[in-house]
Fold:
Amino acid sequence: MSDYIIDLDNDFDKEEAFEIKGDNIALVSVMDSGGNDITPNCRVQITLSKNALLGLGTELIRLAHDYGNGKHFHIEPINKEYVVQSKGIMLHPESCELILGCGDFDSFTEYTKEEV
Structure:
């Protein structure tokens, strides 16, 4: 087993190893129940308990070290008949399904450069 050590006293003036290339990109998409992308008309709010933050963070670090482009996980809300924990969390019954996926992206400079 390998350990991953995180310094909890973050120095915001010092770049972390994952920040250096500028490819620490996340894509957030929102789909309606029909599968239509409604991202431009939405806001996303994710509220986590302290233990959910620790659980999800731990599982995301594990996933990063077993990374595969296109790998994904569906997490469904709990209900009386079906309580499932996935990726270190259980979704509140009023949540929508959450899909966590791995995807390769370019550096942020590719998304922010001006068109010529």
